[in-house]
Design brief:
Layout (H helix, E strand, L loop, with lengths): L18 E5 L3 H13 L3 E5 L2 H10 L4 E5 L9 H11 L5 E5 L4 H9 L4 E4 L4 H30 L10 H13 L6 E4 L6 H10 L8 E5 L8 H6 L13 H4 L4 E5 L6 H13 L1 E3 L6 E3 L3 E6 L3 H6 L5 H7 L2 E4 L10 H16 L8 H9 L5 H15 L22 H12 L3 H19 L4 H8 L3 H10 L17
Parallel strand pairs: 1-2, 1-3, 3-4, 4-5, 6-11, 6-12, 7-8, 8-11
Antiparallel strand pairs: 9-10
Helix pairs in contact: 10-12, 13-15, 14-17
Length: 484
């Protein structure tokens, strides 16, 4: 087999270098193209026939392929090989070359999915220009696909907020992202684990490659192996490319890793550690370069002890742990998050933007959000849909769900009866204490924010709280300006 592989050279002038497969029956052409590309920092793989090319492609997907149209002693010509390549790797950019090309041949190649056609003999500068353009077009197409997916999913926000908890997450992401370490993200449902994973990918050197999501809950035991590792066809039949190969040079994100079948978990242990695997039905090793990020909303120690998560997989995936806090633990982030969601939902849906009244934000801060950020996004979207046509008037509490308004009809009568049993002075004091305690909890102990909402000077509010014997939460013993 006429196969040569060369490592990247140092000091490349290219921003990013890729593996390039060169398929041509003339050894001089292969050597010339290979030397030109290696001088620019690329890794080259060379094949003299379509059969050799398929063997290489079966073992490792390149970043780009250069195919000669006319090849002697080959079971496929370049156009047939192009069709085969596009059947296996639809997103792989391909350049066609030929010394006997015609306009019709070039048109046919581009119709079949080639990026462009280069006629022999060609200058090195033109070849490099076409390679750079093909790789750049492929990168932009992947980025656009990822952006469309993010917008269509939920219009996911950035890591918005000023709380210590979210600042710690942002700092951790900045430190972890440039490394190649595997990351295991924990946190309750809807807290933004996938968003943190996307931030890790976008701030890494893999940002120009794909971010592929494996939704483990949807991978049934019958299809999990095929979905992850692909399946191998026979002869010239079409292969199925699995998620590991789709994420080559990029990031593979396992959502709810504990939902994977145990047998598949065992295969992932090896694939993650060795970056090699076999397709279902295949007998050849496939090599990939994939960063794996995983996430789970469950107690992993319990999952391991009860046999739903392999301990060796946990240690393979959890090289660097990252925890996403629940929204209830960062209530000061709720107002900026709410405003961010208003902007994002309005932009995504075409609905007019709205203003959120202070009482709405206060109610949202007082709610525990069991569904976390995802629930909050859905609430904002519902409010935009149901908002009146006059968008200049701030929205009121009536557009919030009853549980967020703290409406409790079942208890309201008993509370009133208890107050009616007291003298006016005692009833007023009981009400004020209950009211101030609830507001202090709502604003997470931030007296400055609370004072603005209840309409009191901060110093006066402090005196009122002391007179009612209402104490601030331990975790927020200051009011935002360093004064207790």
């Amino acid at each position: 087999m006429a196969l040569q592989m060369y490592p990247h050279e140092q000091g490349s002038s290219m921003k990013t270098a890729s593996d390039i497969l060169i398929v041509d029956d003339e050894s001089d052409i292969r050597l010339l193209i290979g030397a030109t590309l290696r001088d620019e920092g690329f890794t080259t793989m060379e094949a003299a026939s379509a059969m050799e090319a398929r063997e290489i492609l079966a073992a490792k997907p390149p970043g780009l392929a250069i195919l000669d149209i006319w090849m002697r002693d080959s079971d496929m010509d370049g156009l047939e090989l192009l069709e085969w390549v596009k059947g296996v790797y639809p997103d792989l950019p391909v350049l066609m070359i030929s010394g006997h090309g015609t306009v019709e041949t070039a048109v046919q190649a581009i119709r079949n999915g080639a990026y462009d056609f280069i006629e022999k003999p060609f200058k090195e500068d033109r070849l490099l220009l076409m390679v750079q353009r093909a790789l750049e077009a492929s990168r932009l197409e992947r980025e656009n696909a990822d952006l469309r997916a993010r917008v269509s999913d939920e219009g996911e926000p950035a890591l918005v907020g000023l709380s210590a908890a979210i600042k710690a997450v942002r700092t951790a992401v900045e430190r972890i992202a440039p490394t190649a370490s595997r990351v295991l993200i924990s946190g309750p449902n809807g807290s933004g684990k996938e968003l943190a994973a996307r931030c890790l990918h976008n701030q890494s050197e893999r940002r120009d490659s794909r971010f592929v999501v494996a939704n483990c809950a949807r991978l049934g035991s019958e299809r999990a192996d095929v979905e992850l590792f692909g399946s191998d066809g026979s002869g010239t039949s079409r292969r199925i490319v699995g998620l590991f190969e789709q994420a080559h040079k990029g990031t593979l994100y396992f959502d709810e890793i504990c939902d994977l079948p145990l047998e598949t978990q065992g295969k992932i242990v090896r694939a993650v550690a060795e970056q090699r695997f076999r397709r279902v039905g295949g007998n050849k090793e496939v090599s990939v370069d994939v960063r794996v990020i995983s996430a789970s909303s469950r107690d992993l120690a319990t999952e391991i002890s009860e046999g739903r998560l392999r301990e060796d997989l946990y240690y393979r995936l959890g090289v660097v742990p990252l925890s996403m806090p629940p929204l209830a633990d960062r209530r000061e982030d709720i107002p900026p998050l709410a405003r961010h969601f208003v902007e994002a939902v309005a932009r995504r849906t075409g609905l007019g933007k709205v203003k959120l009244g202070d009482e709405v934000l206060a109610a949202m801060q007082g709610y525990r959000w069991p569904g976390n950020v995802r629930q909050m996004l859905n609430t904002i979207e519902n409010m935009l849909i149901m908002a009146p046509s006059d968008r200049s008037v701030p929205l009121g509490l009536d557009l919030l769900p009853a549980e967020i308004q703290n409406i409790s009809p079942a208890n309201s009568n008993s509370d009133i009866d208890a107050l009616l049993a007291l003298p006016l002075r005692d009833a007023r004091e009981a009400f004020e204490k209950s009211y101030m305690t609830a507001q202090l909890q709502r604003f997470d102990g931030n007296v400055s924010q609370m004072a603005g909402f209840v309409g009191m000077e901060r110093s006066a509010l402090h005196r009122k709280l002391r007179s009612l014997d209402v104490t601030q939460p331990d975790k927020s013993s200051s009011d935002g300006d360093g004064k207790p």
